[in-house]
Amino acid sequence: MLLRDARAVLHRLDILFAVATAADDSAVGLIAEARAMMERLVSQPGHRGEVEQRRARDAVRRIR
């Protein structure tokens, strides 16, 4: 659930970044920084989930 919420926030930041860029707003740098932090937050659980799935598949193969 946290991953889904983080992805939703990342999507909203993308929209906000596009609007700020089009309006030549001074907040573009802050939005870009927030987006980079959110990308890291999204990538960590996603990577961790992939690793856990791979370990589970390997464990099943060893049992067979």
Layout of strands and helices, then pairs:
Elements: H1 2-22, H2 28-63
Helix pairs in contact: 1-2
Helix content: over 70%
The count of strands amounts to 0
Domain count: 1
Distance between the first and last residues' Cα: 32 Å
Number of helices: 2
Spans with pLDDT under 50 lasting ≥5 residues? none
The share of residues in extended strands comes to under 5%
Tell me the structural class: mainly alpha
State Rg.
17 Å
Largest sheet: none
Kindly state the mean pLDDT as a whole number?
Answer: 86
What are the secondary-structure elements, in order, as H or E?
Answer: HH
Which term fits the overall shape? rod-shaped
Task: Describe the structure concisely.
The protein is mostly helical and 64 residues long. 89% of the residues lie in helices and 0% in strands.
Verbal overview:
The mean pLDDT is 86. Helix 1 (2-22) runs antiparallel to helix 2. This protein has helices spanning 2-22, 28-63. The protein has one domain (2-63). The longest helix has 36 residues, at 28-63. It contains two helices and no strands. It is mostly helical.
Which keywords apply here?
64 residues, mainly alpha, 0% strand
